[in-house]
Structures are given as C-alpha cells and as structure tokens.
From TrEMBL:
Boundaries of every DinB-like domain copy: 20-150
UniProt GO BP: ergothioneine biosynthetic process
Pathway(s): Amino-acid biosynthesis; ergothioneine biosynthesis
Protein name per the record: Ergothioneine biosynthesis protein EgtB
A Pfam family it matches: FGE-sulfatase
Species annotation: Sinorhizobium mexicanum
Length: 425
C-alpha cells in the first residue's frame, strides 16, 4: 500500500464541475439569513465569523488552485491573502485567529463579490478540462468548504447564544418534543479480531483517513443508540459534575475553572430545561441525544455509567457496512433527533451528533502528510486532540464516511458533540 495516497478524486470532469457549483451555492444559501453584523461578529477565539468562513473557503481555491496553476488569473484583492489565510505557514502571514472579528471591512457584499470572482475563474478552468492534480485540489477545496459549512453554523449558534434575546438563525417555531418511547439501551457484541480500518476504496478521503491498515480489537460491545438528554439529566441529578472521582484530571480542572454544571447552552426556565438552538430558544427534548458536551464530560458520564467511550477503531469496525443515512443538514432540522423505537441494531451512527471516541487524533501506521501547502491540512494537528466520528445534524449530506476522522481538543463544547457508550465483552 502506498503511503498517503489520498486527496484523490474519482469524479468525472462534469461531476466535479457540478459538485463545485453545488457546494458554492450551498454556502451562499447558508449565509442568506444573516445581516452584515451577524456575519462579522466573533464570539470567542475558537469561533470564526460567518463572513470569514465565506471568504476563507474562497481564498482556499485562489491560493491552492488559481494562483499556482492559472498564470493569467488576477487576484480580486492581494490583501485578502493576509485576511483569509487560516493556518498555512507556507502561504504567508495572516490575521490572528482571535481577531478575525475585527474585519468589519470588507463588507459582506464585497465578500460575495469576491466569491463570484473566484467562481468565474474556477468555472472557466473546469470547463476547459483540467489535469488530475488540479481536479484533486478542486475536489479537496469542495470538501474543505463543506467542513466550513458546518463550522459556520456551529460558530453562529455560539454567537447567537451570547445574545440575551436568543435569536434564531432560521425557522424559530417550536420543534416538537418527541413523546415516542425510546428503544431501551442495549449493546451489540463484536468479536475480537484483526480488523481493517481506514479509507481504502475509490473516492475522496482526507489524508488522515489512511492508509488503510490492520488493527487488533478485543471483544467489545457498542450501544444501540446515543446517550439522551434525559439520561444526562440523571447524571446531573446524581451529582455527576460534583464527583471528582468520575473525571479525568484535566476535565475536573475545567469543571472547576469554568463552573461547568450542565451541557453548553442548557438553561433552566419556567421550571424545565431549555436550550439555545439554531432555531432559537427551545424546550430541551428529553429523548433527543445530548449535545454540546466536551470529551471530558463524555468520559465522566461513561465512567458514571460503568461503561466507557469506544475507541475509533471499534466505532469504525461497527460502522463499516451500515448505510450512511441520518439526520444531516439536508433535513433542515438543525437539531439532533431521538432514536426510533421501531428500529433494531445500531441507530444514529451517522448524523445527529459527532460521537467522542477515546482515541487520540494521531497518524495511522505509514501515514505521511502529502507534499506542499495542502500537507498542512491535517498532519500538523495530530497532537492533543480526540477523534469524533459519524457526523452531525449540520454536516452536509455526502460529506461523511465510516473512515472520517473529525478531531477537537478535549475541552471543546461548541460543536454538535455527544456520545455512545461501549464496554468490554
Ligand atoms: Fe479551512
């Protein structure tokens, strides 16, 4: 097996052209409900303004494809390289991440003009037919933009949650609190084996998903569904946030320093739990999966339950062969959804909430970052973070795979992150 043969494309030129325009239009539709102010403010150093996401994803195509491969391309504005480079050391100096919210100008309308300028240049390039390297980079740019579509929404939710009026991004009507019975928690058993994991089939994957390789798993069991808000409330009522023995040391330090006592965005109001969502302030749905919890909270809950978090290898072993269907961005629900009482087997493996695993985000055996600036995409972040699997209710459909490795630091809470329990068999 060749090392890091990923970032490859299996799309025909026509399909790539269509994919490119679909992705670009989706981002603009996501931005439509936003005022210039909504799109400009930055609520914390980890979250970026929507305007920055719309511009940065455009810069990516300009910096990775147009400038290196199209000699006649004229940049929209040379200063944008400083404003909208995220973290690529090989592509020059940049605006510090915590100060992205200071970019009140260019206005949102100018960013949309910038998008059109780059779209037109890419459209011409894709119409003339391009070589394989360009096609790979354009497809990478599309998947990169889909990642930012999810971040745009999670960052916006964090921003709106700071507003005492709890504005809705979209569709502020109440979402029904589901009354259906949940399937009881049960566990599917998997034999111990030498398994194969990692991306090994045709089609796009990030470099960090490969190479496909063998791994040893001991016998384990995996829960049939995600942990719910009601179960999380039991953890709180039992003093879960007050018992140091449940927590990893770094997590307990966070509980004390940040005063954590419930998931991010929970708030007691009118004698019941409410939560800020992309659809505004809504009653918490007890049957829905808990979300906006850190790795440390997920781990403490699993310990309290007498269980543990799955490893990413266990999760992928279980996910291989399961159809990639679920509550993604295209359902427009914008919130995780309860499991069905009518389905057996493993539910909610894809969509709803990203599932914390106990695995550190580290290189697979024989991994090597690809050459050039795109080699900075994933490889340099392989320290101090944990892997999450399965996608969420704001992941664009088609963006997720069984081998997909998302990653965040253990204290991160603003993503749609939840958990599924596992245990040794
Ligand atoms: Fe990016």
């Amino acid at each position: 097996m060749k090392p890091s043969q990923l970032f490859q494309t299996a799309l025909t030129p026509d399909d790539l052209h269509t994919f490119f325009h679909e992705v670009r239009q989706t981002s603009e539709r996501l931005g439509e409900p936003l005022s210039d102010a909504d799109a400009t403010v930055q609520s914390m150093p980890d979250a970026s303004p929507a305007k920055w996401h719309l511009a940065h994803t455009t810069w990516f195509f300009e910096a990775m494809v147009l400038k290196p491969y199209v000699p006649s391309y004229e940049p929209f504005d040379e200063d944008f390289n400083f404003l909208f480079n995220s973290y690529y050391e090989t592509l020059g100096a940049r605006q510090p991440r915590p100060r992205r919210g200071m970019i009140t100008r260019p206005a949102l309308s100018q960013i949309l003009d910038y998008r059109k300028h780059v779209d037109d240049a890419l459209d011409s390039l894709l119409r003339t037919g391009s070589d394989r390297r360009i096609a790979e980079l354009v497809e990478l740019g599309c998947h990169h933009e889909q990642q930012h579509q999810e971040l745009l929404l999670t960052d916006l939710l964090h921003l709106f949650a700071q507003n005492p009026l709890h504005p809705a991004y979209r569709d502020p009507g109440p979402v029904d609190v589901e009354t259906a019975d949940l399937p009881p928690l049960s566990f599917t058993e998997f034999d111990g084996a030498i398994v194969e994991v990692g991306h090994g089939s045709v089609g796009f994957a990030y470099d960090s998903e490969g190479p496909r390789h063998r791994a040893l798993v001991e016998p384990f069991r995996l829960a049939n569904r995600l942990v719910t808000n009601a179960e999380w409330a039991d953890f709180i009522d039992d003093g879960g946030y007050k018992k140091s023995l449940l927590w990893l040391s770094e997590g307990w330090a966070k509980v004390q320093a940040e005063g954590w006592s419930e998931p991010l965005y929970w708030e007691e109001r009118f004698g019941q739990n409410w939560t800020t969502t992309l659809r505004g302030f809504q009653p918490l749905d007890p049957a829905a999966p808990v979300t906006h919890i850190s790795y440390f909270e997920a781990d403490a809950f699993a310990t309290w339950s007498g269980k543990r978090l799955p490893t990413e290898i266990e999760w992928e072993t279980a996910a291989q062969g399961i159809a990639i269907q679920g509550n993604f961005l295209d359902t427009h629900r914008l919130r995780p959804k309860p499991a069905s009482p009518h389905l057996g087997g493993l539910q909610q493996m894809f969509g709803d909430v990203w599932e914390w695993t106990r695995s550190a985000f580290s290189p697979y055996p024989r991994f090597r970052a690809v050459e050039g600036a795109v080699g900075e995409y994933n490889g340099k972040f392989m320290s101090g973070q944990f892997v999450l699997r399965g996608g969420s209710c704001v992941t664009p459909p088609g963006h997720i795979r069984a081998s997909y490795r998302n990653f965040f630091p253990g204290h991160a809470r603003w993503q749609f992150s939840g958990l599924r329990l596992a245990e040794d068999a």
